[in-house]
Every structure is written in structure tokens, then in C-alpha cells.
Amino acid sequence: MIKTGGKKEMLYSIKYMKDREVGHRCLYPLVFTVILLVSMTASICWAENVNLAVAPPEISISAFYNGTSIKATGTIPANSDVVLCITGPGEVVHLKKKGKVAGLLWMNTGKITLKNVPAVFMVYTTPAVAKMINLPTINLGYWSVKDQVKLEPVSASKEFLFKEFIKLKEEEGIYTIDKESIKYSEEPGGLRHFEINVKVPPKMKPGVYTVEASAISNDSVLGRAKTNLTLKLVGFPAWIAGLAFGHELLYGCMAVLVAIAAGLVMGVLFKDKGGAH
Amino acid sequence: MYLPIAGNSVNIFIILGLGGFVGLLSGIFGVGGGFLMTPLLIMFGIPPTVAAASDSNQIVGASTSGTLAHWRLGNVDYKMGLLLLIGGVIGGTLGVQVIKILRAMGNADFLINITYVIMLGGVGAYMFWESLEGLKKDKSPPQEVPEPVEKKESSYAKALAALPFQTNFEKSGVRISMLLPLIFGTLVGVLAAIMGVGGGFIMVPVMVYLLRMPMHVVVGTSLFQILFTCINVTIMQAYSNHTVDFVLALLLLLGSTAGAQIGTKISKKLKGDQLKILLASLVLIVCVKMLYGLLATPDIMVAIAGGH
Predict the structure, then answer these.
(1) What share of chain B is helix, strand, coil (3-state, %, to 5)?
(2) Domain check: are A127 and A213 in the same one?
(3) Which residues does chain A have within 8 Å of residue B64's beta carbon, measured at their own beta carbons?
(4) Residue range A178-198, pLDDT digits in tens
(5) In a domain, B204, yes or no
(6) Which residues of B touch A161 (CB under 8 A)?
(7) What is the per-residue pLDDT across B256-265, written as a single tens digit (0 to 9) for each?
(8) Does ipTM top 0.90?
(9) A-proximal residues of B, 183-212, CB under 8 Å
């Protein structure tokens, strides 16, 4: 107990209080650092609990290729759901816009260009997560693409045109939200194993695609893991593409000569012995 | 089979069948079939620009096959064909400039569609009516030359006879000015550039009604002219736009070259008026389909740019 009394004692108590205050202030950064380290460790642990692998990681497109399927497998924290996104590199797409002319005829009324559009956008998830996939905290659905796409000319109906563009891509099979292909199994250690049979449509062109798995729980993303999927031409298709893009004039002349030769061969095979009409 | 330029795979038998069907039509009627084949290919998932360019490649094969078959029958008038071709090249070049001006004015698509409907509907309806009249009148096996139609044709014939550079076209059995195939070839070339087709279905009625050539010679000569037009288009598209899918074209032409031969045999068995009425029916069906496309609300309000 500090006796109150003289000035010296008062000063001492003030200094003591100040020292305690300084001491506390020194503690705060330390406590903050410890909390930060613990939370970072925790998040790293969570991120480490999202694992992803695709098999096979490389697809060869040969002469009789007609699409294929791959298996995406991995782990996420227990009691979370997975969203698997396969996206292609951004590209430029030129579209014709349809509208009514003279109040009667439907025809092309203009051209629009979409820039930085993913070549492919396929999402695999559960029905429950699919309903909230466009929430700002998750943002893994088609609307995440809309924000990155640039429309020219700039238009107030970007949302409408984007929706129509999605319909077009869904018809081609390269934009999709699949809610039925995920299989789960529980693993020890608080993990959940997922297995997804991913359909690779023939319209998915050669290139390197990003496959990303996100673990979702309570409207937020707990962690992600990413890998690549490569499609490449081999054999005859690779030779034809090399010729078409590397030796264009030769390719065009070859195409014409082969067509003429085929026509002449057919003419010989079907030789008509009759005379003029 | 995988198509490396189209970036899609197709069922081989479907493509062979498509090629065979369109080749059949080219052998019977002397049309390249582009106005049928390109929309069919787009329907099967081929990008429009690749469909149009690869179809040109296929038409080279079918036209070679058909021209050879008709040449054996004595149905190719090379002289007439070359003049029409020269006119067609001039007209095609002019037509591309017309399109540029129209696009700058913002009216291109409207005019193209209206031109299609008017040309298809008008030509188809006139051919149908005229050949029906011919079939009704003609009870015996037909002559090669179509019957002249009343006073209008005879004054037209007088006008033709008055033109300079009169030339005998032996295979067609006509004597007309060299200027006529050049002028009509140019007009067809302009229309073909606007409508984005080879011009067969415009050229055939021009040859029948304006140059007064017999139908069987028209078929062979038209194929000869289309052959060279499409050789040019194929090389240009491959060189400038990289849109010729050789694998697709090869499958199509295997079917179409065989189809063209069979079509030629069928055309031998048909009378000129029968050929005309069948072609007219085909043209009218395409016209109706186009009108439906113009009037019905589309499912999707955007489409990939390119193609015809």
C-alpha cells in the first residue's frame, strides 16, 4: 500500500502509474502479434486442408478426339462444401446483337465485342451452394465473370447482353454450373474428401486451363487450392493446325488441290459411258 | 472426328451425309449449295466463319466432280463460263466495296436480309410458275432449248441481237453479244458479294431466262464458273483468315463429290422444266425458312459474328 503523504511519494506513484501504463502499452503489440500469428497459423492450417489434384493433368487431342472426362479429387475441411471452377484464358469475342427492325423483322442490329471473356467457365458445386454462389462473399458464379468482362461499345444493357452471351456459351457446353457431380466421403482428422467427374467437352480448345477448388462454409470461402489442366493437339490435328497457321498459302493451295483431285477421282470412279444428251 | 480449325468434333457419317446431299443438289441443279450447307454446318456446332470458308473448299471438289460429269455429257460451255466468271470477279470486287459502304451507313444487315428474301422469293416464284406452265404445255419429251415466251421475249431477243460483239456459243446453241455474260456476271457477282453466296442460284436463272441457254448446259456451265470462284475464296480465306478446316472440307467433299456424280445422272433423267420446278421449290423452301427466321422471336439475342 502506498502511503499518501509527501510529494515524493506522489511523484513516485505517478511514475509507477506511468510505468504501468507504458508496460501495458508494450504488451499490446506483443499480444496483437501473438493473436495475428495464431490466426495466420490457423488460416494456413485451413488453407492446407484444401487440397486438389486432377487426373489426368494433360489431355491429348488426336484425330478421333470427341471430348473426354477427368477426375478432380481433393480434401476440404469437414462440414464445408467444395466449389470447383475450371476457367480458360481471357479472350475477345465478337457478337451480333439481334433486335426488331420496323417493328416486325428480327435481324442483326449491331455488333458488340466482349473483351477478357474466359474461354471456358465450368463450375461444379452442390445445389445448396449454387444458390449463394453469386454472393459477394463467395463470388464464384457467372456474375464474377461479368465484372471482369469489358463490353464495347459501352451499353446500359450490359447485364442483359451478358445473360444472352451466357445462354450461347451454355448451349456450346463450355459454360456450365453443374450441381450433381460431387461425391463426398468423410476422412479422419476433420477432413472431407471430394471426387468430381469433370466432363471436358470437345469445344474446349487446346490451351492451359486453371482448376481451382474453394471450400465454402457459412457464406464464406475458407480456403482455396489451384492446379492446371492442359489440352494439346497431337498427331494429325497438330500437323494440320501447324500448316494452317504457319504456312497459310501452302495450306490453302493444298486444300484446293486435294479438293480438285477428289473431284477428279470421283469423276473417274463414276465414269459415265453414255454420250451427250 | 476432331476438326482442328473448327475446334470441335463431329460425327463422320453425319458430315459425309451432309456433303452427299448438297453434292446431289449441285449435280442436279448446278448450284454450289453454299446457301444450304453453311447454315447446316452452323447447326452442327461449326463456327460460322469456319463453316463458310470450309464450305467453299468443299464446293471446289463437288464442282470439279460435277463439271467433269457434265463435260462428258457435252453440257459445259467454257466460252460462256469464262465470260461469266470474269464478270463475276469484277462484280464480286465491286460488291465488297458496296458492303463496306453499307456497313458504314449502318444499313448492311437490313439490306442483305431484304435482298435475300426478295431474290429467293422472286426468283423462286418466277421459276416455279414458268416451269409449271412449261410442264403443262409440254406433253412430249422436251427439246433442250426452252420455248420463247410471247412478245416480251421476242422484243428482248431483238434487243439482244442489236448489241455489238455477237458471238456464237456452240454448246449453248445461242448467238448473243459477248457483253451480255460479262454484264450479267458482274451483276451476279455484286449480288453474291452482298448475299455472301457463290451465286449459283442467281446465276442459273440468269443463264436460263436472260442468256436463253438450255437448262442442261446451264447446270454444267454454272458448275464450271462456281469452281473458279470457290478456288479463289478458299485460298483467300485460308491465307487471310485461317478459317478453312481441311479435315471438315475433306469429309464434306468425299460425300459431295459422290453426290454430284449421282446428281448428274439424276439430272439426265429429268426434263428441263422438271429441273427448274424442283430448283424453284428448293429456293422457295429456303425463302420461307429465311422469312421464319426474320419473323420469329429468337431464343438467344446474340450470336457469334461471321459466316454468311
Answers:
(1) 75, 5, 20
(2) yes
(3) 259-260, 262-264, 267
(4) 999 999 988 778 889 999 999
(5) yes
(6) 301-302
(7) 888 888 888 8
(8) no
(9) none
